[in-house]
Amino acid sequence: MLSLRTSRRFCNAAIAITSNDCPAAASNRVLNTKPLEEPALVKLKAERDPEKLFHLFKANAHNRLVIENRFAFEDMVSRLAGAHRFDYIEHLLEHQKSLPQGRREGFIMRIITLYGKAGMTKHAIDTFCDMHLYGCSRTVKSFNAALKVLTQTRDLGALEAFLSEIPEKFDIELDIYSVNIVIKAFCEMGILVKAYQIMVQMEKLGIKPDVITYTTLMSAFYKDNRWEIGNGLWNLMILKGCLPNLATFNVRIQYLVYRRRAWEANRLMGLMQNIEITPDEVTYNLVIKGFCQAGYLEMAKRVYSALHGKGYKPNVKIYQTMIHYLCKGGDFDLAYTMCKDCMQKNWFPNVDTIRTLLEGLKKANQLGKAKAIMMLVRKRAPPFSTKQLGVLQTILTKS
């Protein structure tokens, strides 16, 4: 944890770096909490009228089954915001702050986040700044919640002011999460060099970059086709003794596939398993795609078989990749089998891939298989357009 002096120095460094750059929105994390099946919650979930929803929620302001259920709050705010009833949102959330739960920092963090989801940024920041008024302790956790909401806006000046004034005003010591929020925001704004400079500055101030820092920066530089910096960050991370995680490996493998370096991507997937990081469906799909694009269809089949051997079930992206390249390579029998399997799960390749498969099956005098695929195509929900179905049917009927 940094001293107050160090926190101020970081904030000043961040502000200096952001000067004269254009802002953009940052993404926000969405909480996923399953609602409890209790009568009040069921009524809230079923109510569609904004005014009735407002009164129903207000009537349950002291109901612990409601106030402790994050889904209920998120759903309420989402629907009221969709109806543009921001006055209702303000009334309900401000009322919650005045109740006993308003003295818990975790609960106030939820209020801050909900205001952010509703696009009510000023209310979110005011909630953080006024926490002492309702007897709630303020730490870097609630600071980070407010900072994350602020990065969703396009007001870089407000972000500068927040970083400059708030930590000193409330004696907040920044942590690695604070820094990563700023770095992620800069990356999403496209200010990549500035984001990198933040990492350099934070090391000088004693905040050690973690795997999230490196992964965020690597992903941004690779997507911007600045692979030399992305590679440098990968090497620096290893040199510093910061072990990559699954997300980091997937970012690196995606870059290797994009550069048509399928064998290196495959070796990297092998390294993951050697250090006990289990590849996921994204990893397998990337490596399969890499071999397919490089023309090594047999290797792609082997990786696909390995996926099954590890107990994974192919998802729609893996099916799409395999079917597309099997058709391109002329292996219509295996393409037919995979296409039939995925269609029976209501996963459908794109129309161009289906058309290529139908043309290949017809050319190979396997009209029965082509008709079987067409029968499944007609069962798609939601259905293909009439024009698309007509194009596919024409393949079977033309001589």
Automatic annotation (TrEMBL):
The PPR repeat ranges on this chain: 175-209, 210-244, 280-314, 315-349
Any matching Pfam family: PPR
InterPro entries: PPR-containing_protein, PPR_rpt, TPR-like_helical_dom_sf
Record carries keyword Repeat: yes
Keywords from the UniProt entry: Repeat
Gene3D superfamilies linked to this entry: Tetratricopeptide repeat domain
Keyword Repeat: yes
Family per record: Belongs to the PPR family. P subfamily.
UniProt xrefs under NCBIfam families: PPR (TIGR00756)
Protein name, as recorded: Pentacotripeptide-repeat region of PRORP domain-containing protein
Organism: Malus baccata
Highest classification ranks of the organism: Eukaryota, Viridiplantae, Streptophyta, Embryophyta, Tracheophyta
